[in-house]
Amino acid sequence: xxxxxxxxxxxxxxxxxxxxxxxxxxxxxxxxxxxxxxxxxxxxxxxxxxxxxxxxxxxxxxxxxxxxxxxxxxxxxxxxxxxxxxxxxxxxxxxxxxxxxxxxxxxxxxxxxxxxxxxxxxxxxxxxxxxxxxxxxxxxxxxxxxxxxxxxxxxxxxxxxxxxxxxxxxxxxxxxxxxxxxxxxxxxxxxxxxxxxxxxxxxxxxxxxxxxxxxxxxxxxxxxxxxxxxxxxxxxxxxxxxxxxxxxxxxxxxxxxxxxxxxxxxxxxxxxxxxxxxxxxxxxxxxxxxxxxxxxxxxxxxxxxxxxxxxxxxxxxxxxxxxxxxxxxxxxxxxxxxxxxxxxxxxxxxxxxxxxxxxxxxxxxxxxxxxxxxxxxxxxxxxxxxxxxxxxxxxxxxxxxxxxxxxxxxxxxxxxxxxxxxxxxxxxxxxxxxxxxxxxxxxxxxxxxxxxxxxxxxxxxxxxxxxxxxxxxxxxx
Amino acid sequence: xxxxxxxxxxxxxxxxxxxxxxxxxxxxxxxxxxxxxxxxxxxxxxxxxxxxxxxxxxxxxxxxxxxxxxxxxxxxxxxxxxxxxxxxxxxxxxxxxxxxxxxxxxxxxxxxxxxxxxxxxxxxxxxxxxxxxxxxxxxxxxxxxxxxxxxxxxxxxxxxxxxxxxxxxxxxxxxxxxxxxxxxxxxxxxxxxxxxxxxxxxxxxxxxxxxxxxxxxxxxxxxxxxxxxxxxxxxxxxxxxxxxxxxxxxxxxxxxxxxxxxxxxxxxxxxxxxxxxxxxxxxxxxxxxxxxxxxxxxxxxxxxxxxxxxxxxxxxxxxxxxxxxxxxxxxxxxxxxxxxxxxxxxxxxxxxxxxxxxxxxxxxxxxxxxxxxxxxxxxxxxxxxxxxxxxxxxxxxxxxxxxxxxxxxxxxxxxxxxxxxxxxxxxxxxxxxxxxxxxxxxxxxxxxxxxxxxxxxxxxxxxxx
Lengths: 477, 465
Known about the structure:
Chain A is an alpha/beta fold. Chain A has helices at about 25-30, 60-70, 75-90, 100-110, 125-135, 160-170, 195-205, 220-230, 240-250, 275-285, 300-310, 315-335, 350-355, 365-375, 385-390, 415-430; strands at about 45-50, 95-100, 120, 140, 180-185, 210-215, 250-255, 265-270, 345-350, 380, 380-385, 405, 440, 455, 460-465, 470. In chain A, α4 packs across α10 (about 275-285). Chain B has helices at about 25-35, 65-70, 80-95, 105-115, 130-135, 165-175, 200-210, 220-230, 240-250, 275-290, 300-315, 315-335, 355, 365-380, 385-390, 415-430; strands at about 50, 95-100, 120-125, 140-145, 180-185, 215-220, 255-260, 270-275, 350, 380-385, 405-410, 440-445, 455-460. Chain B starts with about 25 loop residues before the first helix and ends in a 7-residue tail after the last strand. At the A-B interface, α4, α5, α10 and α11 of A face α4, α5, α10 and α11 of B.
């Protein structure tokens, strides 16, 4: 099959009703949620594009796997099934399940990082960086400059800049770098892939220095698809084959199976090195669970093993990314500033370009996500200064990218839903001048984007809801 | 309820889905045990005939729980499944802040990470293994304060899980500054699944309030504990298990819960409390290691299954059957002279290995050896709760455990009476050959929670002479 068609290689077997809301209901809901889409009740959301993590629809085969899950506490056959699937497709000998990706990150960071260490990576990710810092390490962004430019059409904006990596090695010395953290794809850059050629060069640079490579493989299948589509000489290879080569270039991996592997919960940590794996098994039992279940039900491991295999079907991955690109192209046609090229799991709106009148200190992406919800019931996520948090001296970090992420769950929404999303974003774009910035009024210690609360800064009062108090308005009407 | 003129207590359910059991020969089990380095935790589940390793996460869910699984809302934030879960937990515990976690030890990790500083002392009636490990991981000192009878396997005190209130008062008086919280484990798993009386909870609670130290319940078997109060304490016999459980929670400031026990689920847990400030600190830690506060590292479908399961666990017909099925085995074994912890516990029967194998010194781990022979002879998997699990102190030295037990833990709603009859037959057979059973030694073991992964070997060439 060729051409642009990305028709789904499945039909629908079970449905879940959506609730429609009125604009007045949504205004009240976003105010209750402190203008943070994370704090909305899912019932008040029409189309939920907050995240693609754990929100996928499972297949009938996965549900069948859920039924055959072996819930034995130790030595469950579902663990063997999962272990075989990971060994076969990701190529790591030692497989340790964890309840989700951050469980694996927590354990790996504590095992590999000593206080004072430096961890280079192709752009930070929120939870990953916090785990590195809590273990006493310092994160260094060594992604290529193009990653920070939303308008650059570089095909592999997830690539590592080898000059930056070399400069860091020269500065802090190789023995203070326990590993290079490679994400595939790079979420914070807009779901952008790293090329196989770049990964090979990072391997060549680090191997003689004894620096490990740890692959964050949450969306490595999507990354492999981009390699197949875009990288010279890779077009005839199967995605599964490319994935195996990507993994062969790393020493260990952490996995949130809630992304590529099409499950609602689960993850794993995998390594080649037996000693590292043994230490990880001893730690996993304290925080997660015995190493043959890692904090998961047997059924979850069964569903993951099947999900891994389904994720690598060529028809699946083409359809998956085809849907994301469909939405991205509709937005581009409507003149919406989005990160290009379109990423693997989400379309990222450039809020700084869309709302030039909102200063960065007033969190334009947070404001845009809130406005999009109020206007349409679509839930998206801020990926900008709120997510980036504060630096060591307590100042707000203003990353180059101030984005709103429209994240597409796998196999959940239809083309008609995507059309609604495109029309809604276009409608908000048309009224963008009237969107107010936000002020943060509550800020948690870690990962503030999850639970922070805001208020609109524009001093436009209107008589609002049933309790009769005047409220600040997000949209000047 | 069955009319009182009939005395047979039947399962208040019928079977909807079955899972085949694979039979093995003794020769196959011998090979399996060797491959597993003489550690039943390292056996493949398919090589086990009756799996009594744990009642944690191994039970059978009901049709209503499975229906809940299908309704699970997998939204990352604000899922309606969280509302259902939160309501169910609040209705039973009354705590105002409910924080889901992927299982019980994660709730412990987050609570201790938030409250325990190096050098702090955490009193508990008896810490369970992961609780102890999590306190020590924070540099805290776990202090067990069971009543005297709790450590005497043959005593028939009805509430052997109780905390020694006088000792608690003494430690609060002397070390109050170093005590960030007091914990009470219901039922008391390490002491034989023995209940804690409501009266004891009241006394402990009053002390904690007097000394202004928060009291947290390790609530994983709260429903079984409530039932044992109802049936063993005359003044509570007219009350429902639910109201006894509710009163117990009302006496505490918070709880940790493994929903894999009385949540009747295969995965899940929670942390709940009244103090909003501590809850915020716990949520800050939660997002790092578990997940967002409305899913805490669980799928939406798990939240639904737990919400239903917590209520099913308080169903009195179920509790009557649950406790009775364990008493049934207890009575059969006592009748033929098998040494047990008495009275029978809520979730398990505990074989007293020291009395069964008096010829094996504790440094040769009699309970561990017994667990291996049960597997070898009958394909039954049961866990040692003795000196392998508790014998290693944080400084690396060995100290024999107070009790050498083998726990036959019963998964909820899973095995039938004929399975139980088979277990009774195997245990009797092993008891008859007890004098031929030999001790074991540790080949290699990690420093923390070593029983899960230790490699063991017979200390004298063969396990059975």
